[in-house]
Amino acid sequence: MEDKMTQEEVDDLRSSQKKLFDSRLNLGDVQVAISRLETKKKSLVFDIETQSATFTQLQNGLTEKYGNKQVNLETGELT
Fold it and tell me: What pLDDT does residue 1 have?
């Protein structure tokens, strides 16, 4: 049995180790990005729910005041 690896074997081992390290590092970056996107998604869902409730409340108040009519959002004209 030999006491020393060949330079080619050392180079191959280093290369493989670097690729493994880089892949793990990239996976960590992806996980951080996913976490940030999930947080952003939750925030957007909350905003949509809040705005939807506000819109429905406004719509109901206007329907009560003006009846069930169509509105031109550019002019405010009711038909």
Answer: 82
How many helical (H) and strand (E) elements, i.e. helices and strands, does the chain have?
Answer: 1, 0
Residue 15 phi/psi, 5-degree rounding, is -60, -45
Give pLDDT, residue 78.
Answer: 94
Beta-carbon contacts of 70 under 8 Å, excluding residues fewer than 6 positions away, are 78, 79
Q: What pLDDT, on the 0 to 100 scale, is given for residue 57?
A: 98
Instruction: Say if pTM beats, i.e. exceeds, 0.85.
Output: no
Distance CA 21, CA 43 (A): 33
- Residue identified by tokens 């892949």 is 23
Give the up-direction half-sphere exposure of residue 65: CA atoms within 13 A in the CB hemisphere. 8
